[in-house]
Amino acid sequence: MNRNIAFIVAVALAAPVTVTAQETNPIEPHHVATLRSVGTVEVSPDGSLAAYLLSVPRRPLDEDSGGSWTELHVLDMAEAGSSRPFVAGSVNVGRPSFRGNEEILYTSRRGSDKASALYGIPVGGGESRKLVEHANGVGSYVLSPDGSRVAFLAREETAKELKTLREKGFNQEIYEEDRPLTRLWIADVPALDADRSDDGSKPVLVESVDGHVISAVWSPGGERLATVTTPTALIDDSYTSKSVAIVDASMDDFPVVSEVEAIGKLGQVEFSPNGERVAAVSAADRHDPAAGRLMLLGGADDFNDLLPDLEGHVASFAWEDDEHLLYAASVGVWSTLGRVSIDGEAETLIEPGGPIGLSFSLPRGGGAAALVADSPDHPREIYRYDPAEPRAPPVRMTNSNPWLDDIDLARQAVVRHTAPDGLELEGLLLYPLNYEEGRRYPLILIVHGGPESHHGNGWLTSYSNLGQLAAARGFAAFYPNYRGSTGRGVEFSKLGQHAAAGPEFDDLIVAVDHLIEIGLVDRDRVGITGGSYGGYASAWGATYYSDRFAAAIPFVGISNNISKLGTTDIPLEMKLVHHRTTLWDDWDYFEKSSPIYYVKRNRTPTLILHGKEDPRVHPSQSLELHRHLKTLGQAPVRLVLYPGEGHGNRRSAARLDYMLRTLRWMEHYLKGPGGDPPAHEIDHAAWLPWAESGDDADEEAATPDAESTGGDE
């Protein structure tokens, strides 16, 4: 079976070895719709077990449409493949944690619960028992080191008088002013041998912590809490205005003993084992697009970057001892695991080039870590890695999609090339499944959002990233990491600031030209798609660069930067780390960086998709683009809106519909007859082995163009 081989393709290298056409077992839409993926993981204090969450998509037409189920599974860290479900089925489980080595805690809404509560289940198996509940639900939580208390997040309770008014129709919304704050609560946790009814205590609100609480973490001794807060519940504040408040949890009134304002975006915060230091993943400054520096926090404005020379972005870390931290970071399209001392002496433990792992859990007493990682062959799984044996590669421990072992996947490669200004760029290429040397193929350019994001050399296929699905149908698929992407340090990530749609989107054309020059891509059969900022790039490809793209699919994308700034929920973030100016100070810049400014150039068939409840990029952005393109009438255009969806599709039915529509649009215009768009109806059941196809749908609308459904053209 032809498995993925990751390798480098540089400008000077020849095309890869030919893969002879053969009978294959390609990936299909129903496979992508049911892909399972590992989420949060925590290792028991003794290192013997790992409790983790498994995301299990609902099967379209077989289950009610909704978000993926989240199950609790437990892995024996000594034996690969030993994972077993603990709380599974039609459930939604929140973050697991161990209380000693005897009990696993998790949040869920079970039975007659009106809101999510904290539950515990014995490690040896048995029934779950409710430990803590709250009227508005137990949200994110952290267990105290001795297991006797839990600090958790929950919304403020609505006053009885306000509830009565709302029931009588006074349900007006005071825009951005009446959003309830999330507050910090502390509750006692019943002993292992006690029932909750034996205690009778109720959660206590930590009134000393003002504003909206994002997260909290205990000091190792349990006497303090480090809380991350913002002034309001607005998403813009969570990007631009975080503070760290240290609370004395040994006092009844929980006084705040110190407070540090973040210097920019802020991520994970953790105490050292002795409780004397606090480390955090932080931005370098207010204009840094992403939190990716590993910092020691001191007093006000005292942030010490432990890895100042890292040309990458730290994603997560854990204290190994009082003097050393382990960290996971993105470095280009790869990831790495390293160790650094509080004096800044660093060493690399896992060299870039293996599985892409950006989160991990380390047992409290030391030992092997559970690393959550993906690869070109599979979505996120758990790997075992022992920092004491740095030369030993991580060992894969779980296989959540065993059927993938029988699927023929396309070859995936890292491609490096140079922009005209000398900047080295890189991206990821999926060759057509049965690639033949010397043939030119249609290309789908898949642009990431952000732009403070990047594609890593791992699993690249999802409902909104056609990846292997496209390759199985004879397309090449390329994922460019254009300037402004993360993974290459602060300087690279700032290259797109105050230059929207300029050199950053020129980089996309440079990438396409490179793939044409090496003989892989047909210049006349190139499509572009992406979500959010990738949707912006796709709208730019349908207008400004319309002569270069034969099909475009913007998803939740920007079309008008002027109106976007007046409708987005992150206006300050847009100013600080994107545009570095305001609308009223530079109208010309915002106007000329808007795709609608160039709509008269449009000759590209454009499929526009958007969630109707999107707060980040308002659906009016897609309405504007659609109206102008349709009024001009120079090329086919279609707009699909998804009720109930926001900045990306969450429900299983909406995800399947998106996948089928985008695949069909690309096949119709890059491989099929082109011309008028395909019918707007889709027989979704025709794509699902477990469903019966409807008789009322047009057969032509149910499948891609007949001559282009195979792995070859």
Largest sheet, strands/sense/barrel: 9 strands, mixed
Structural category is alpha+beta
Number of DSSP helical runs: 13
Mean pLDDT: 92
Estimated share of beta-strand residues: 25-35%
Strand order of the largest sheet: 1-30-31-33-32-34-35-36-37
Low-confidence stretches: 1-21, 695-713
How is this structure best described in words?
The protein is α+β, with helices and mostly antiparallel strands. 15% of the residues lie in helices and 31% in strands. The chain has 13 helices and 37 strands. The protein has a nine-stranded mixed beta sheet with strand order 1-30-31-33-32-34-35-36-37, sandwiched between helices. It has a four-stranded antiparallel beta sheet with strand order 2-3-4-5, with no helix packed on it. β7 and β8 (117-122) form a beta hairpin. It is globular, with a radius of gyration of 26 Å. It starts with 7 loop residues before the first strand and ends in an 11-residue tail after the last helix. Residues 1-21 and 695-713 have low confidence and may be disordered.
Secondary-structure topology with pairs:
Elements: E1 8-9, H1 29-33, E2 37-43, E3 49-56, E4 69-76, E5 84-87, E6 97-99, E7 103-108, E8 117-122, E9 129-132, E10 141-143, E11 149-155, H2 160-167, E12 182-188, E13 204-205, E14 212-218, E15 224-230, H3 235-240, E16 243-248, E17 256-261, E18 266-271, E19 278-282, E20 293-297, E21 303-305, E22 313-319, E23 324-331, E24 334-341, E25 346-350, E26 356-361, E27 369-375, E28 378-385, E29 395-396, E30 412-418, E31 424-430, E32 441-447, H4 467-471, E33 476-481, H5 490-493, H6 503-517, E34 521-531, H7 533-542, E35 551-555, H8 561-565, H9 571-579, H10 587-592, E36 606-611, H11 620-632, E37 637-642, H12 652-670, H13 699-702
Parallel strand pairs: 1-30, 32-33, 32-34, 34-35, 35-36, 36-37
Antiparallel strand pairs: 2-3, 3-4, 4-5, 6-7, 7-8, 8-9, 10-11, 11-12, 12-13, 14-15, 15-16, 16-17, 18-19, 19-20, 20-21, 22-23, 23-24, 24-25, 26-27, 27-28, 28-29, 30-31, 31-33
